[in-house]
Every structure is written in C-alpha cells, then in structure tokens.
What does this fold into?
Amino acid sequence: MDNSTQHRPSPAAFLGALYDFSFRRFVAPSVLGFVYLIVVAGAALWCAGFVLIGFSMLVTGIPALIYIIGGVLSFVAISLAARVVLETIAAVFRILDHLETPPPA
It folds into this structure.
C-alpha cells in the first residue's frame, strides 16, 4: 500500500484514542513506527558497543573479529526480528479493519 494514500492521525486523535476507555480506537497502529525507531536505535547502540569492544581487543586477533562481525550481525538480526514482529502486529490490525468495514453494496 502506498504511504501517500494513508493519513497520519493528528495528535488530538492520538490522545483521544489513548484515553478511549471503550477501546473502539486502537493506539498501537499509530505507535508502531516509533517503536521500530526505538528498537533500531537500541540495536545500533548494541552493535556499536560490540564493535568498540572488538576494536579495543584488536591485538588479540580472532576474538576481536568475532565481536566486530557479531555486532553487525546482531544489529541485522534484531532489526529484522523487530520488523517481522511489528509487521505481524500491523497485519492483525489491518485484518481487523477489513473485518469491521462492511463490503460495498
């Protein structure tokens, strides 16, 4: 689906959905992008830590390369896993939207 056809909820709509005690509107679809940003930033810090440890151990040889390569691979793995989980959540909400909207007459 093209992102240009989707509309972004306004901050007032977000707060309205956040404090909707009847749970008719969902907050999760609007915060998925922010959650992914936080996960990717955390994975980048994790990767940077491993790479720095690897470079500080560079005189030892192979263990340093394991840290450097492991840091980069862990960044990719964490980002991929987070993306799959968040896309699954988004798909569930899209299915729910399609189930709630009546078919065109």
User: Anything to note?
Assistant: The CA atoms of residues 9 and 30 lie 7 Å apart. The chain has one domain: 26-100. Residues 26-100 form one domain.
